[in-house]
Design goal:
It comes from Azospirillum cavernae. This is SDR family oxidoreductase. InterPro entries: NAD(P)-bd_dom_sf, SDR, SDR_fam. The chain is built from seven helices and seven strands. By secondary structure, it is an alpha/beta fold. It has a single domain, classed as Rossmann fold, CATH 3.40.50.720. Strands 3-2-1-4-5-6-7 form a seven-stranded parallel β-sheet, with helices on both faces. α5 links the parallel β5 and β6. The longest helix has 25 residues, at 96-120. The chain is globular. The structure holds NADPH dihydro-nicotinamide-adenine-dinucleotide phosphate. The site of NADPH dihydro-nicotinamide-adenine-dinucleotide phosphate has 30 residues, from α1 and β2.
């Protein structure tokens, strides 16, 4: 596959899970792919070698480091903002610092990364954030702050699509439902409850989310912007 041949692609949070599947998808299609990670150095190095991609350690919670990393990639064709944290529990007892860190990674970082990328992005570039169906629907207790972060992404992509549209740059959110990763294993204790909300009662594979991301990033995605692309087995329907 040469669909992304010569394209300069950055995936924020690419060492594991959905992000790693996205790195593999773009690299397999000829893209020059760099990806960031925070803690999983071994997984990042293994993926970099295997997929012929470049691993960069940058914690998305460190705003200045994140902006510097995005700027250092030059004129990007595609930015995928996948890095995300999930903090769940009783809001009355959750640590405020843990909530603030989640908001820093899931909300502040995507905004600053998208804006920094747009400063030097090629015309007709693509900015894609991995949101969540929980931006639309939160049927469980204990995840209000996580849902808050994913709803925030919906407003961000709508607004930035307006800001960058005159350059042909598209800005979209891919909203997965339950997807089999370390964050949300298909055999985890809450899987059956989640499947109960779905028409197709299984976790998605990370590769399925990567495929939708690649479509939006590709030539057929030129008129898709300011949109929420949900891939959730009807969890949110
Ligand atoms: P995982 O926890 O399996 O992987 C998260 C990835 O993001 C890792 O590569 C991790 O790197 C990276 N990451 C996390 N925090 C940071 C940070 N501060 N700086 C840089 N990189 C970071 O999660 P998933 O693959 O499941 O989730 C990916 C995205 O998809 C998230 O935004 C999540 O909210 C969203 N999502 C997931 C769903 C699911 O069911 N799995 C459903 C809906 C949305 P490292 O380990 O190196 O820190």
């Amino acid at each position: 596959m040469t669909e992304f041949s010569g394209k300069n692609i950055l995936v924020l949070g690419g060492s594991r899970g959905i992000g790693a599947a996205i790195v593999r998808r773009f690299a397999a299609a000829g893209g020059q792919v760099a990806f960031t990670y925070a803690g999983s150095a071994d997984a990042a190095q293994a993926l970099a070698t295997d997929a012929n991609a470049r691993a960069i350690q940058t914690d998305s919670a460190d705003r200045d480091a994140l902006i510097a990393t995005v700027a250092a990639q030059g004129a990007l064709d595609v930015l995928v903002i996948n890095a995300g944290a999930l903090v769940m529990g009783d809001p009355l007892t959750l640590e405020p610092d843990a909530i603030d860190r989640m908001i820093a990674v899931n909300v502040n970082a995507p905004y600053h990364a998208a804006v920094e990328a747009a400063r030097r992005m090629s015309d007709n570039g693509r900015i894609i954030v991995i949101g969540s169906v929980n931006g639309d629907r939160m049927p469980f207790a204990g995840a209000a702050a996580y849902a808050l972060t994913k709803s925030a992404m919906q407003g961000m992509v709508r607004g930035l699509a307006r800001d960058f549209g005159h350059r042909g740059i598209t800005v979209n959110s891919v909203q997965p439902g339950p997807t089999d990763t370390e964050m949300n294993p298909a055999d985890g204790p809450n899987a059956a409850v989640m499947h109960g909300f779905m028409a197709i009662k299984r976790h998605a594979h990370a590769s399925e989310v990567a495929e939708l991301t690649a479509f939006i990033a590709g030539p057929h995605g030129a008129m898709i912007t300011g949109s929420l692309q949900t891939i959730d087995g009807a969890f949110g329907a």
